[in-house]
Amino acid sequence: xxxxxxxxxxxxxxxxxxxxxxxxxxxxxxxxxxxxxxxxxxxxxxxxxxxxxxxxxxxxxxxxxxxxxxxxxxxxxxxxxxxxxxxxxxxxxxxxxxxxxxxxxxxxxxxxxxxxxxxxxxxxxxxxxxxxxxxxxxxxxxxxxxxxxxxxxxxxxxxxxxxxxxx
Length: 167
Hints:
With 167 residues, the chain is mainly alpha-helical. It has one domain (3-164). Helices cover 80% and strands 0% of the residues. The chain has seven helices and no strands. Helix 3 (63-84) packs across helix 5 and helix 5 (100-115) packs antiparallel against helix 6. The N and C termini lie close together (11 Å). The mean pLDDT is 96.
């Protein structure tokens, strides 16, 4: 495993997790999902997703990851563009394509699990999977559900970061 690339990917993932938490809290406080501020933060998240992909693709060789991740990110980007245009379809697209994240992320999890603490990698993957599966709840105003899983995922990422710093 390329530990330097893994550390960079984890750093970007932590940044994304914190932005996601902030965005979900803002939605909970009343920020409209279909708004320019929301779309702007989501656009930054798309850029971070590309950076994470570039780092993790240095050591994750699965074809599902290599080819599936760009499709997932592209679908999310189309959704964000639709959100910027005040379209509810954008929210549906982002939620639908985000389901691809834990599918392609499974291969990142497998690589991390082979080199890092297995328990924390499981917590990370479980948090990421449950976050993705509960993200549609945000459409119904239940922002705290995916927020809880995003925070669990982020805590695990901080722990994995600490381990990677010593590799």
